[in-house]
Design a protein that fits this description.
heterodimer; A: Rossmann fold; nine-stranded mixed β-sheet; two-stranded antiparallel sheet; B: Mth169, Chain: A
């Protein structure tokens, strides 16, 4: 607790059985001045956190489809309520898959075109700065961020794609589409712009030691959306 | 109530790319299989459903198929009661 009596801003990082990027996300957020804590998937209470991250991994073993079972974990109901109230929510990789399966974001993530698991670093372009993930980025900014997925091929019907484009809801696009995603989409947001999903892993581009710090601006944006004063 | 053995088949909707099916199809000539096309890959689920009638079993399994077993954004499901 802060000594001034004000609540301390914190980011809840959800852990399903099989999630495996939670500690990387906590480390990255804390290196940026945020506070983060893990929330086990059986919890129905987000404990008053100010933002939530659904990290990467293999929630519930990716059984049936990535994210399909996670939708029924108790915490996902609390997450949906938090999102509906306007709380900032970020789904990274498997977290993006969970958010689409839970209906918090439209569309679906299919197997990559070419049927290869992709583990590489890609360049993505910031397509809007009006989202919980990009409010501190610059329009058109190019970021080098790792991807690590088999099902990252974003797809949706034509009407949904039109809505995403018309309402400026494509948050990130790949410069050189690695997985077949429709319209080169790497990340999208919901209508309220507080829920964002992306396949690249910004937490893996948060230290010089990792080869890129380009993910920092995205995580800073999330902290900013959560009310944490970030940077100068 | 009685039990019905139900088969739920989930496949990608028409127009959704099926790279797995396409890859298998491309491999067939190398194995000497000619004249086989339209290969698509899906999933099959076998269930035992307690229901008042065959129709009821199909309805309940269909509901399950559309709410969980298939992702309606990219997949269709068919439900068959097995003899």
């Amino acid at each position: 607790m802060g000594t001034g009596g004000g609540a301390v801003t914190s980011v809840g990082v959800i852990v399903y059985p099989g999630t495996n990027c939670e500690h990387d996300v906590v480390e990255a957020l804390e290196s940026l001045g945020g506070r983060a804590r893990l929330i086990w998937h059986t919890s129905t209470d987000l404990g008053g956190c100010d933002a939530v991250v659904v990290p990467g991994g293999f929630a519930h073993g990716d059984y049936l489809r990535p994210g399909a079972i996670a939708r029924f974990s108790p915490v996902t109901g609390a997450l949906a309520a938090f999102a509906a109230a306007g709380g900032p929510v970020l789904g990274i990789c498997n977290g993006f898959q969970v958010l689409t399966e839970a209906g918090l974001l439209p569309g679906a993530l299919q197997k990559n075109r070419g049927l290869t698991f992709l583990c590489t670093t890609v360049t993505v372009r910031v397509e809007t700065t009006r989202s919980a993930l990009t409010n501190r980025a610059t329009l058109g900014q190019r970021l080098r961020i790792p991807i690590n997925h088999f099902e990252g091929n974003y797809t949706c019907d034509a009407a949904t794609l039109r809505t995403l484009r018309d309402h400026d809801r494509v948050v990130l696009r790949y410069e050189d589409n690695p997985n077949g995603s429709v319209d080169d989409i790497a990340g999208i947001c919901n209508e309220g712009r507080n829920v964002v999903g992306l396949m690249p892993h910004p937490e893996r581009a948060s230290q010089e030691l990792l080869g890129s710090t380009d993910g920092r601006v995205l995580l800073e944006s999330l902290l900013s959306a959560a009310g944490v004063p970030v940077g100068a | 109530m009685s039990g019905f053995d139900v088969l739920v088949e989930v496949r990608l909707r028409a127009g959704i790319a099926d790279p797995e099916g396409a890859t298998i199809e491309r491999a067939l000539p190398a194995l000497g299989f000619e004249g086989i096309s339209d290969v698509s890959v899906g999933k099959a689920f076998r269930l035992r459903v307690e229901a008042v009638s065959e129709e009821d079993a199909v309805t309940r399994a269909g509901d399950l198929a559309h709410r969980l077993l298939a992702n309606p954004v990219i997949e269709d499901a068919t439900v068959t009661v097995m003899p």
